[in-house]
């Protein structure tokens, strides 16, 4: 394996921007030993259509409490209502929780969904990143994530920019840092992970850029010798893929996108850094830097960015956790939406903020809320959607959806629509050659499109 060395600023998970890629073994299911060139070679079968559309999918790992965020229950008894009150927003008639004043001030650019249903109950990001229960088509590799679908159907916008990137800091509960599974599409379409330990996709190990270039020249020379004896012309094609692989590894375009020190100080201050990290335990840090990095990556041409923000599994000290995580999320997501809007990118970038399920209406003996897959919530922005809305409602106790239940697949179908893919008709062939629709519930949310 190959590592690029050099001093640089580090992100919240301790990864240097110069030490962010590994050429090495990628294995998913029966597919193993893929190099970066192999990934690019496999992607050549993709339909490469230029598109500026992209998605930033922010996973609130552990299950955020819907009734303490976007669906405050003022009429519920105290053992259910909790400690937070509602605040008015920029849209008359819509109120959200008091921990989110910055988002409240830009509610005209947001959508809150208060009635998300269809949660499988798994303690992972799989549904949020794909729309599917993890068990679906498991015998042939499982369903692909949104990012992997974009990698397959759209391909990269540039040879030096991956289609899909995961900014997931390592977590002790590993499913909370999963990047979005490629499923039956295979390892060639899994997310590029610029993080280090425990994420074995890509890091250049023990080599300088000069030595890497020298090895590239040597490889080219050897391939030239082979090509002279190759009447089929296949070696010319292999050269192209090797050159593309070196392009990703040596281009400054991706390294620059991953270097937030290039941002003006006032922009970095607007996002904040999410420190100190509280209530992290076995989950992700509240790394606001990752949300700024996500904007830089989509601006550079990445089609899909996934990240895990915080650890919301609040079986105890729920209200202290929401004050901490919620305030940091409020700062970072409001900065992201403002940033995208000021740069003229908001209509082209879909932002999703959600978790794997909601939390119990009744507060437990540890001032916490437990798992509640019956109903959850989501925050959405951008993508050309009709924003300034609160969609759906739950009953007085926040137990179940009573108006406009929104299945998780409807949200994913809406994301696909925003990305320029028709969820009603688009299919991808599975390994048996059978066409598979992107989601089962294929109609995007009529309120938004």
UniProtKB/TrEMBL annotation:
Signal peptide: none
Taxonomic superkingdom: Bacteria
Pfam families per UniProt: DUF1501
Entry's transmembrane regions: none
Protein name: DUF1501 domain-containing protein
Annotated organism of origin: Fuerstiella marisgermanici
């Amino acid at each position: 394996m190959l590592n690029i060395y050099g001093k640089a600023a580090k992100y919240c998970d301790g990864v240097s921007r110069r030490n962010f890629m590994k050429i090495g073994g990628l294995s998913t299911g029966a597919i193993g030993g893929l190099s970066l060139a192999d990934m690019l070679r496999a992607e050549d079968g993709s339909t490469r259509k230029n598109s500026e559309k992209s998605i930033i999918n922010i996973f609130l790992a552990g299950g955020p409490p819907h009734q303490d965020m976007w669906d405050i229950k003022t009429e519920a008894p105290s053992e259910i209502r909790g400690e937070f009150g509602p605040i008015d927003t920029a849209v008359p008639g819509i109120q959200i929780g008091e921990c989110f004043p910055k988002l409240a001030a830009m509610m005209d650019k947001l959508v809150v969904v208060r009635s998300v249903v269809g949660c499988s109950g798994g303690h992972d990001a799989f549904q949020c990143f794909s729309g599917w229960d993890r068990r679906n088509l498991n015998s042939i590799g499982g369903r692909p994530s949104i990012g992997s679908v974009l990698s397959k159907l759209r391909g990269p916008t540039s040879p030096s920019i991956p289609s899909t990137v995961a900014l997931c800091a390592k977590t002790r509960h590993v499913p909370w840092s999963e990047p979005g599974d490629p499923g039956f599409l295979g390892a060639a379409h899994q997310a590029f992970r610029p993080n280090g330990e425990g994420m074995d996709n890509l890091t250049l190990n023990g080599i300088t850029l000069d030595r890497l270039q020298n090895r590239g020249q040597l490889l080219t020379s050897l391939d030239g010798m082979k090509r002279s004896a190759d009447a089929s012309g296949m070696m010319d094609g292999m050269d192209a893929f090797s050159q593309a692989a070196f392009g990703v590894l040596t281009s400054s375009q991706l390294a620059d996108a991953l270097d937030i020190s290039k941002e003006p100080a006032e922009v970095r201050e607007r996002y904040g850094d999410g420190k100190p990290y509280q209530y992290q335990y076995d989950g992700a840090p509240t790394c606001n830097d990752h949300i700024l990095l996500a904007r830089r990556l989509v601006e550079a041409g990445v089609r899909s960015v996934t990240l895990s923000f915080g650890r919301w599994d609040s079986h105890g000290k729920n209200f202290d956790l929401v004050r901490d995580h919620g305030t940091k999320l409020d700062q970072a997501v409001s900065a992201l939406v403002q940033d995208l809007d000021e740069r003229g990118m908001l209509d082209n970038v879909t932002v999703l903020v959600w978790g794997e399920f909601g939390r119990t209406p009744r507060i437990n003996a540890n001032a916490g809320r437990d798992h509640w897959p019956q109903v959850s919530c989501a925050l959405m922005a951008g993508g050309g959607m009709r924003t300034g809305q609160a969609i759906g409602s739950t009953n007085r106790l926040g137990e179940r959806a009573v108006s406009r239940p929104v299945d998780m697949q409807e949200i994913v179908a809406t994301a696909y629509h925003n990305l320029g893919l028709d969820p009603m008709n688009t299919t991808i062939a599975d390994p048996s050659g059978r066409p598979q629709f992107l989601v089962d519930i294929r109609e995007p949310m009529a309120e938004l499109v």
